[in-house]
Amino acid sequence: MASSLDLIGHASELVQQGRLPEARAALDRVLAGAPDHAEALHLAGLVEMMSGDPAAAVTLLRRCVEIAPAVPFAWSNLGVAYNAGLDFTNALACFRTSLELAPGNAAALKNQGIALRRLGRHDEAVGELGAILDVNPGFAAQRFIPASVDKVRRARQLLQATHSRAALQVDGGIARETIATVWRAGADTFVAGNAIFSASDPRGEIGALRSRCMETA
User: Fold this and answer.
1) In the chain, how many domains are there?
2) Residues 28, 112 within the same domain
3) Most Cβ neighbours (<10 Å): which of 46, 100, 204, 216?
C-alpha cells in the first residue's frame, strides 16, 4: 500500500504533467486517511487553483495555514486564492502574514500590491518592483520563452541607467534549467511555482534553485 509521502510525490508528478484530476484523486486518498496533512492540503489547494476553482482552493489552503501557520508560501498562496475569488480584504491579510514571516518576498509584495489597488488603496501599493513574464499568460507549468532573456537584460540596463534600486522579477518557466540564465541577464527576484510544488522535496528544490544563482562561471 502506498504511503502518504509516495502518494504526494505521485500527485506532484501528475501536476507537472497537467493531469489534475488524477492528482486530485491521489491527494484525496492522502486526506481521507490524514485530513490534517498540511503538505497534501497545500498541494490540493494548488490543484484547485490550477483547475479554476479558487473557492475550493481557499478552503484547502485555509486549513493548511491553520495546521502550519509558520509557512510563508502557504499564506501567500492562500492570498492568491482570495485574490482570484475577488476577496481582496482577506487576500491582503494573508500577504501581510506571509511578509511578516518572510520579509521582502517579491511575489507576496507584488500580490499585496494587486490587492491594495483593487481595494482602491493605490498610495499604499508597492511600486519598487519590475516584473517580466517568461511564459504566455494563462496557466501554470508552461514552457519558458527564451526570447524573454533579452527583455531581462534590457530591463536591467534601464534600471542601471536610471540608478533605480527596484527589484527585477521574472515569473514563469523558472526551473533548474532556466534560472541561471535569467539571473546572469540581470534578474534578482524569481517566481517559481510548478518547479517547486511539483517537486518531491519542495524545500530542497528551493535550495537547488538558489544554488544556481550563486555560480561564478
Assistant:
1) 2
2) yes
3) 46
Give residue 121's pLDDT band: very low, low, confident or very high (50, 70, 90). Answer: confident
Closest CA to 186 of 214, 149, 153: 153
CA distance 89 to 60: 18
Considering the chain, what is the average pLDDT of its residues?
81
Please report the pLDDT score of residue 97 as a whole number: 93
Could you say which DSSP state residue 201 is in? S
Q: Which three cell numbers stand for residue 210?
A: 538558489
Give residue 89's pLDDT band: very low, low, confident or very high (50, 70, 90). Answer: very high
Do 116 and 148 reside in the same domain of the chain? no
Give the domain extent around 105. Answer: 4-124
Provide the CA 91 distance to its chain's centre, in angstroms.
15
Distance between CA 123 and CA 194 in Å, rounded?
32
Closest of 39, 5, 7 to residue 22, by C-alpha:
7
Cβ–Cβ < 8 Å for 197, 15: yes
* 13 and 75 together in one domain: yes
DSSP-assigned letters across all residues of 149-184: HHHHHHHHHHHHHTT---EEEEESS-STTTHHHHHH
| Extended beta strands in 38-188, E state | 129-133, 167-171
Rg of the chain over Cα atoms, rounded to whole angstroms, equals: 18
At 6, the amino acid letter reads D
Whether residue 8 is found in the same domain as residue 88: yes
One domain for residues 59 and 117? yes
pTM of the complete model? 0.59
